[in-house]
Amino acid sequence: MSTTPTPRQIIKTLLPHLKVAAGYAHQIQPRIAVLPAKGTGDNFFSAALTDADLAIQNLVEVALLGSFPHMRFYGEEYESSSNTKYFRSIELGTHGDYLVTLDPIDGTQFYLDGHSNYQIILSILNTDDFEAVIAISPSENVYFYALRGEGAFKGTLDMDLEACTPLKIENSQSNILLGWNMSYLAPALKDKYQIIDIATAYSREIQIPNLNGIFNGDVTGAAIRSGKFIDGASLAFLAREAGCIVTTLDGSSLPPLHTCQNYSLPGLIVATSPLVHQHLVEAGQIVVN
Fold first, then answer.
1. What CATH number does residue 136 fall under?
2. CA 289, CA 286: separation in Å to the nearest integer?
């Protein structure tokens, strides 16, 4: 096997292709055609699928195979892709044998309903933890990226990596985001925060924050039932590199990735301050007790 490129080299090589994907997603959003749902998802978000999901994954696959043909790759739409068979593996490797993952449209239901806070998320995973994540918001002309131990950065889509500036999370509103099936935490939090319960607050007409609201101050804390490697866990890594507190729902440290099942970390808390983190952990303890 050829020498493995560094996470920075991978991100830098793929960034121009991701920008093309971003332009495509933004351009066709008003005209997007809906494909059949993704089987039996446990909520209407996980069931959504569009032409953009498949087209963007194919674009990134072609770029990755052309640039780093020996790379491991797991894309959300791997079952529908004709390129899956050309990658060496879709599984995590040993230390230093990276797995690239992709969520071609994170927030597909947001995308379908014309909202702007969908993303393209590409991540690089080692056996124990994330090495890098880049999250592009096409409709908002911004992207965020983080490299393990180097912090998180923000830039507009006309900037290269070196031109981006450190991501500073500040002036957060007192909104707590509860992911799907996390409504049970609301009673213990509602006296301190405005609760955005994704299961009941989502609207086709009015945009609500999702997990990436952590980055622009719309959300001060979040609890999600599981941290999928391709989206929730990736955004949590970005938040962690930007200085947020990220733990499991009971406040424990995150387990190594190779110990997880189904490409997913357990339930996660993402908090912009120790106090917000404390309140989220305590809310879960009240329910348990």
1. 3.30.540.10
2. 5
Average pLDDT for residues 213-228, to the nearest whole number?
95
Beta bridge partners of 287: none
> Quick one: DSSP state of residue 146?
E
C-alpha 246/C-alpha 222 separation (Å) is 10
Size (the chain), residues: 289
80 & 130 share domain: yes
Mention every residue, 6+ apart, whose C-beta is less than 8 A from residue 141. Answer: 156, 157
Q: 231: closest CA among 183, 270, 199?
A: 270
- Structural contact between residues 194 and 221, judged by C-beta atoms closer than 8 angstroms: no
CA dist 98 and 106 (Å) reads 22
| Token pair of 198 as six digits | 């994704």
Q: At 195, which CATH number?
A: 3.40.190.80
Widest CA span in the chain: 57
Handedness of CA 163, 168, 174, 179 (dihedral sign): positive
**Which tens digit of pLDDT belongs to each residue from 154-169?**
999 999 999 999 999 8
